[in-house]
Amino acid sequence: MKKTYFLLASLMLFMMPSCKKETAPEAKPLEISVTEVQQQDVRLESEFTGETFGQSDIQINPRVDGVIESLNFKEGSLVTKGQLLYTIDPLPYQSKVHQAEGELAEVGSRLARTKSDYDMMVPLAKMNAVSQRELIAAKAAYNASMASLKAASANLENSKIELSYCRILAPISGLIGMSKVRVGDYVRPGSLSVLNTVSDLGDVRVRFTMSEQEFLRIFREINKENSSLKGVGQSISLKLSDGSIYPEKGKVSFADRQIDPTTGAITFEAAFPNPDKLLRPGQYVKIGVVTDVRKNALVIPQRAVIEMQGIYQVYVLGDSSKVHMQIVKAGPSFKDAYVIEDGLKSGDKIAMGGTSLLKNGSVITPKITAWEPGQVETVPTK
C-alpha cells in the first residue's frame, strides 16, 4: 500500500508542468519636475504693520450746549462741505439775541442823549455860560455811552454766533460715520463730546513703525553714492488683512522727527490713492518696503527646499539623470522663492520636490519646467 501511494505521488509530480522563476519588472524612473537655478537682481521687501487714516479725519464737536433737535444726514454716507448735519434747540440762544438787541437799542438811546448834551455844552462853555467841570462831565458821559455801545454790539454779535452754532455743518466733504448721539440727547462743548467724524478718503494715510536699527541701516544705504535703494519710498506696497495685495502703490510722505524712546521705533506715514474707497480709517495692514537690493542673486523655489532642524537641502540633477542631495545656505525669502547664498551655482538643475519617494542617488525622468519667482508654473517644456 505504501509503495502504491509513493508511485502515485511520483507520477503526479512527473505530470505537473515545470515552472520557471519569473524575474520582477524593473521599476520605471520617477518623472520629476526640474528647474534651473535662476540668477537675477532681487529687491527684498520688509513688512511693517500699519494703520489706515483718512486724508482728513475731522471730529465734529458741539460748540454750545443744548438738546439735539434733529439729525439731517444718513449715517455712513457721503456728505458735502457746509451740509447741515445736526441742529441743537435754538430757543435759549434766540432769546439771548433778542435780549442783546434790546440792550443795544437802550445803549444807543443813551448815546444819543449824551451826545446831544455834550454838543450843547461846547458853545456854552466858550461863552463861559457853563463851567469847565460841566463840559468835562458831559464829554465823559458821551464817551462812556460810546464804550457801552461797542460792548452791547459785541454782546449781540456773540449771541448771534452762539445761535449759529445750533446748526452744525459738515466741515469738509467726505464719508460720515455713525452718530454718537440721537435726537433728544443733551450735549455740551468739550473735546470729549464727539458727535461724529467725517473722513476725506481721496487719499488714505498709513502710519507704520520701523525699528531704529533698520532705520539706521536703510538711511546709511540710501545716502551712499549710486545706492540701489534711492527712491524706494516712492513705490511701496500694501497688503490687506485677507492677504490680498492692494492694486495701488503708495509713497512715503514723511518720517517722525524723533525715535520713540519707549519702543525704540520711528513712525513713518505713507499716502495711497483710494479711487474705489476700498480703504477705510482704522484698518490694520502690512506695508511692504524695499529694504535691500541684491545683484545677480541665485533664487530657487521654496517648495524645492527640504528643511530639517535648520539645515536646508535640495536635490540636484547630475549625470545619467541621477539626483544627489546638496546642503545649501538659504538667505531671505523673495516672493515664493529663497535667495541661495551658498551651495548652488547658476544653471544647476534642481528637483522641484513634491514626492517623498525621491532619495539620494535616485534615477529620475526629468521634466524641465520653466519657473520665475512669484509666477504661476508654466507648461513643462519638451
List key phrases describing it.
382 residues; alpha+beta; conserved putative lor/sdh protein from methanococcus maripaludis s2 fold; Elongation Factor Tu (Ef-tu), domain 3; twelve-stranded antiparallel β-sheet; four-stranded antiparallel β-sheet; 4 helices; disordered C terminus
What is the CATH fold-level name of the largest domain?
Elongation Factor Tu (Ef-tu), domain 3
Alpha-carbon distance between the termini? 74 Å
What is the number of strand segments? Answer: 19
Extract low-pLDDT stretches: 378-382
- Tell me the Rg in angstroms: 43 Å
Largest pleated sheet:
12 strands, antiparallel
**Structural classification:** alpha+beta
Share in β-strands: 35-45%
Please provide the ordered H/E string of secondary-structure elements. HEEEEEHHEEEEHEEEEEEEEEE
Could you name the CATH homologous superfamily of the largest domain? Efflux pump adaptor protein, beta barrel domain
Q: Number of folding domains?
A: 4
Number of helices: 4
What would you say the CATH architecture of the largest domain is? Beta Barrel
Amount of helix? 10-25%
Family: Belongs to the membrane fusion protein (MFP) (TC 8.A.1) family.
Main location: other
Pfam families: Beta-barrel_RND (PF25944), BSH_RND (PF25917), HH_MFP_RND (PF25876), RND-MFP_C (PF25967)
Protein name: Membrane fusion protein, multidrug efflux system
